[in-house]
Amino acid sequence: MKELQHLNKYFYKYRYKLLSGVIITIVARIFLLFTPELVGSSVDVIDEYRKGIITDMAVVKRELLINILYIVGAAVIGGIFTFLMRQTIINVSRYIEFDLKNEVYQQYQRLSLDFYKSNRTGDLMSRISEDVGKAREYAGPAIMYSINTLTLFVIALFLMFKSAPLLTLYTIIPLPVLSYLIYVLSKTIHKRSTIVQVWLSKLSTFTQESFSGVSVIKSYGIEEQVNADFDTLSTESREKNINLTKVQALFFPLMIFLIGLSNIIVIYIGGKQYIDGEIESLGVIAKFIIYVNLLTWPVATVGWVTSVVQRAEASQKRINEFLKQEPTIKNNTQEHTTVEGNIEFSNVSFTYPDTNIEALKGISFSLKKGETLAILGKTGSGKSTVLDLIGRLYDINQGSITIDDKPIDMLNLNDLRNSIGYVPQDAFLFSDTIKNNIMFGKENATDEDVINAAKNADVHKNIKKFSKGYDTVLGERGITLSGGQKQRVSIARAIIKSPKILLFDDCLSAVDTETEEKILKNLSKVSEGKTTIIVSHRISSAKNADKVIVLDDGKIIQSGSHETLLNSDGYYKELYLKQLTEKEIS
Ligand SMILES: Nc1ncnc2c1ncn2[C@@H]1O[C@H](COP(=O)(O)OP(=O)(O)OP(=O)(O)O)[C@@H](O)[C@H]1O
Fold it and tell me: Domain named ABC transmembrane type-1: which ranges (predicted)?
């Protein structure tokens, strides 16, 4: 129960709702317990009439009618309170589930990139859905059924002991056995349903992938192979489901068997005691039969609740492990920082913590506010890493990075990131309208801002061609943009917020050189006064930059302006000549 203590703050938050739920539960159960006593007294009235103690039939009828009215009244009021019981306690558990999901989600947002590298997306999803769901079962149903059982048990046993102590002892003998068996059964059901879930998720991942990759499957003509694989998976999944149904099917027969057993004990022992004169009336046997039936469910839930609490404890443990993690990239100051855009790298080295790859080795360069730097180099030479370090997605291992002469880790992290417009190598767009995808960079942007940004990214004309224009929905169930269009929407998103620092990571690779030329021309206007870094494989993107650096295996092998680099032998000049020839040929 140690891990579940995390939920106590939520219980406290909803203490009034919870308390009213507890009271309502107790009241609901009390009304339920009127029935056995009333049935018992009805049977007694009939018995007394048969024995001649009551001689007037009208008295019998009146007594029975009153009892029936009480039973119906108690059932109606009990029913209303049972409804309210669910409305309070189960609702509280839904509120707690909502809060806990938000808490986990906010923690996900807080954590740094390395956290996402070391945890699989599936795991992150299941913490926030399945594990939170299991914790909810503890916060709602488990508590509700526990109070339910406790109230019923205490009051029913008191009433039963009062009228026939020995019979009570015999009657409750099978109940702990029932509770234990239900506990074992619930655990087995849980184990098997977890396996079913695993297979279900394998099936849905497989199906999802085969839908997304349908063009590859069709073009390779491997439909039959895919069908066969699906068949194997679904057969296995069916077997697991059948295994689960087998144990689930035991649940009710077991309950009915044990209720039957208790009934037999009541009738046999109760009957014997009645004959021997140890019980004063037949009504006792009648009401005991009802008590047994009333107690069976709550007793069964003791076993169920035990296994729910165990599961919730395990789930909450996994959730707590995530909640306890601290982001590796910390915001070291709450003071606001205004960023001007002067960037300096001094002898910076960086090794990725997860792969131990030394991506940068002793990099130094400086950029004044408003200057443009182009970074070129072979694939894997460390270009994107330089941009990631400016956004402080990672902290460096050696050397120093300063922004406006302040160490980067002493700037307010949110202010730093807000002053950066970053266009990643793989443009990521949300399944939302084009307008919202662009506005993502600036919440309060006007339509005019959106259009201007799209124009500068040279994607306005493309967007206008869609029948719904800027309201076109992208992604699943929406339009799929071409690689170049995605890149340009992503550029529009970065420039709309007019940031102090613009980082373009090879984001013109999917557009033709003519469009590239146009975008670069627009960007030179947009980026006026802003520090800009363009990572590229093309000389055309670098030629107008104030400075160029060429990286190779994490080191700077050339630096200077376009002109100076063209005048010296090396990677830059070779690339220039190669791309010049390609252009001439095309
Ligand atoms: N997130 C990461 N985690 C671990 N290693 C990484 C990560 N990103 C890059 N690397 C490694 O760091 C090195 C530099 O990668 P980087 O992406 O900076 O190169 P790049 O020059 O931008 O390459 P490209 O031109 O292909 O985009 C590579 O060896 C790469 O495998």
Answer: 21-311
